[in-house]
Every structure is written in C-alpha cells, then in structure tokens.
Amino acid sequence: MAERIRYKNIDEIPDxxxxxxxxxxxxxxxxxxxxxxxxxxxxxxxxxxxxxTKIPHYFYWIIEKDLEKAADVLLERNPFxxxxxxxxxxxxxxxxxxxxxxxxxxxxxxxxxxxDYIIKRGYKIxxxxxxxxxxxAVIGSGPAGMAVAYxxxxxxxxxxxxxxxxxxxxxxxxxxxxxxxxKDILDKEFEMLLNMGIKIETNKxxxxxxxxxxxxxxxxxxxxxIGAWVEKRMRMxxxxxxxxxxxxxxxxxxxxxxxxFKGKKVAVIGAGNVAMDVVRTxxxxxxxxxxxxxxxxxEMPALEEEREKAKADGIPFHFLTLPIKxxxxxxxxxxxxxxxxxxxxxxxxxxxxxxxxxxxxxxxYDFVIKAIGEEADRKILPEEYLGEDGWPYADKKTGxxxxxxxxxxxxxxxxxxxxxxxxxxxxxxxRSIDRFLKGEDINVKEIPPRTVSFMLIRTEYFDKAPAIHxxxxxxxxxxxxxxEEVKTFSEEMALKEAKRCFSCGYxxxxxxxxxxxxxxxxxxxxxxxxxDYDFCKGCGVCAxxxxxxxxxxxSEI
Length: 557
Description:
The chain has helices at residues 44-48, 55-63, 67-77, 81-87, 91-94, 107-121, 143-154, 171-174, 183-195, 212-218, 245-253, 273-284, 304-312, 411-414, 419-437, 475-478, 491-499, 512-516, 541-545; strands at residues 34-38, 135-139, 158-162, 199-201, 221-224, 230-231, 243-244, 265-269, 288-292, 317-318, 321-329, 332-345, 351-355, 361-365, 367-370, 374-375, 406-408, 522-525, 528-531, 551-555.
C-alpha cells in the first residue's frame, strides 16, 4: 500500500481552490440518497457470550487505566468475573475477529484481571434501588442461585438463599478443584451478596428443612437452582463397586482424607469436564490414574484446554474402550472391558460406539471412578413441576415452571453445563421474576443487534501483534500441589492485550470519520462523532474509513 502523505503545516499543502467565506450556506445534504448512520453494534465476542458482557466497553476502560469504570461495565452483566475469568470456557474467544488477523484476544484473562481488581478494592455496586417490598426465596447457592439473587437484588427485591451444605457455592465450591478455582476467591465474591443485603441460610435442604409450599406462602416468588448432583447410571454388572466422580471431587474439596488413593492404580470412566477434573485431581494426590472412553479423542465432550492439560500431566487415555463388568476381587476391582468401533452419528452428532464381538479383555485396578455425566434429582419435586418426559421443567427463555410464581434454572433444568451458562439462565429468570412481580408479561421479545463481521474491520489501521498469554506453573510444579496453576495478568500484560482489541462495533473516538469527511459534516459532541445531515452528501468516506464497522450507509430512497 502506498505511504500516506503527512503534511506538517498548511504551507506544505499544494495550491487548491479555496473559498474565503463560509460554505455552510447551501445545505448540500439535500443532494444525497444514502446517509451514514453511526450506531454501536455487537462485537462477535459479545454475541457469543451467554451473559452478553460488553467486552469492548470494559476493554476501553482498561486501556484508559480506569478500572473502576471497567468494573462497572463487567458487573452490569456478570456478577462474578473473578470466577468466570478462571473457569469459563471462553465462548467469546471463539468468534473473536482478531483471530482472522493474527491471534484472538485473551478475553477471559482480561475479565479475570478486572475481577481480581474488584476483589482487592472491595465490591461497590452503585445505585442499588430502594427495596420494592417484594421477597424472593432462592433454593441452591450454586452459580445459578447466586447469580439470580444478585440480579434480583439489583432490581430492588429482597432475596433469601437456602443452601443444603454448610457453605455456599454449590458446584463452584464442591465440584471444581482448587487449582482451577481457589476457594478464597469464592468467599470474596460472595461477600458482595451479603454486602448487598442478600441473606444466605445454610444447612437448609429442600424437602427436609424447607418445603416448596411453605416458601410459596412466605415469599412472593421462588427460584430453584439446586444443580445436577445425581451420577448417571452405566447399567453395567457390578456398578455398585464403582465410586462417584462428583462425590470424589466433593470429598477432596471438603478436605477429607485421600491418602487411600496415593500410589494406587485408578481408572476413570468418562471423558467430560468432570472426568478431567477427577483424573487431574488424582494425579495431584499421588494416584496413578487413567481415562477409559468408549469413543475417540475427537468425540470427547471435555474442553480442549482441560484435555490437553490432562495429557501434559502424563495421564494415559484409553479410547474405544467400554467397561461392561466390575467385580470386587480381594479389595481390587477387576474390570471387564470391550473394544469399540465407531458407527454413524447419533442424536448428539457424535459417531455412535459399536461393540466389537469377541474383543473383551480384563484389567485390575485399585479403584474405578465413573464420571459419565450428572442429572437432576427428579424425585425432589412434586409431579406438577415435571414435564412430559418426567424431568423438572422450566421454560428456557423465562425460567418459569408450570406453577405460578415458581421459577427454575441452571444445571437443575438444562443438565450439566458451564458456570457462565448457568449465570445466563439466572439472568433471564431474574428479569422474568421482576416482570412477574410487577404484573407484566414475562415473555419479552428481543431484537439482537447487528454483529460486526471481520469484513467490516479496516485492518490496515492495526498492527499485527501476538496475543499475551498468562503465566502458568510448569507441569512438574502443578502436579505436586493444589496451588492455582494459572496466574492473573499484570497491569502491563493487561494493557498490551486490551490494546490489541479491534473494538468491533464500538466507537472509541478514534476520529477517522471527522478527519476524512470532505464536507466537514461530522461534528464532535461529548467526545463522540455526530453527523450533520444538513451538509452530508452521503459520499460514504466516513463509513469506508471507520476501522470498527460502526458507520453504516443507509438508503433514503
């Protein structure tokens, strides 16, 4: 591309026809048939985020070194950024436009950077509305329960959370290992809820200490978010000889004795995120774990990041292997396995595993742990809360159950998912509960904003730069303890990475439209461009020179 000519002063500019009077007499805007519209649009990262976090917005404030405002933007949609900044699978990064230029932005790490800042400075939720007088009971303090309480309190309602365990957090506390999510982070995040006036009552189990009918009488609305804690059955002979993956993780997170696994040979059945947490935890407590999975690595449901770390930890994966029988032999587990082959795709889209006749073989282990998936406890709710399939039911868009005033969500309804998806469900349910309490229609139709594609980004205004990645413990270090293995960005790292963002669809006042407009019809008001349509001829230069795809030419015919 030819180098742009840059004039240092007016004397260097070649002679041109120059008007000595004002040109703002003839309103030349009447000549145009298309007009530029300046409007913030959705970045692909924002659209991909289940919570709809305004990612380019808080990046802007990181660059401006105003973390107070960055925190305000994050907390508007995400109640626990220090948590999601550690355990979120980063859906946002999948659609990042920058990856088509060089490398995607480390969005999750920047979220964690701001989240950790919030923890250090203490939570400050600005302008909490006055109490509406409405009271909501939330059953369960996992990501869905805690998030719905947060959003409801921000609507001005009074919230009480009832939790079965002695401490709040649900799967965050009892299911995710400390090397991924330290428990002190949870405690500090949850302090915010208490500071907002939310009450948390622990050791309160649904159907034992609290009952739905009683809560419906005492409160104006009820939200059920008790998660999915029932291990799925394999329906194999001798299944009673297997341990539960979720119960194993809960025991470890509660600090219970784990010495019995040290030096022992342990098979883990499954290849999802729980299975990865189980084998990597076993490695840290000195066991010799391996993975048994009936499909191939390509079909594994676990996050690629966790799968690769498990492999780096030295954990063997045995694919196309299905355990069909478990026998207790003198304190050992004799596992009969069958080799598999892949057939046509099933309803999950993955190729269906088919047994190979005569391929059975046996292997002895000290322990065998199943981690093939979890589901909700369908027995805990009366029949009127169940769907036609016999499982707990709630509308996906509103969280409303079949019983008026009772809402539900998170893993309890959608099955095991991610923390951010549970929080997103809570976000929708909280909005529905708020509208229900106001007597409004809870079915709100939303028109999604236009997403800025890579084709609308003017990449010539950006320099190529490699992504900044967080520092991590080496494999040798991390398998010896439960110390957090990934570190938070420093300020220098955060600034460099935030500056790499294209800021797709979000005006950050670069001034290109103002500088290149040939008719001076772009005005500057309150730090933002505004089009003066009286003089805009609709040439489209502003749109073609906008680096971020914010200006769109719209027909006026």
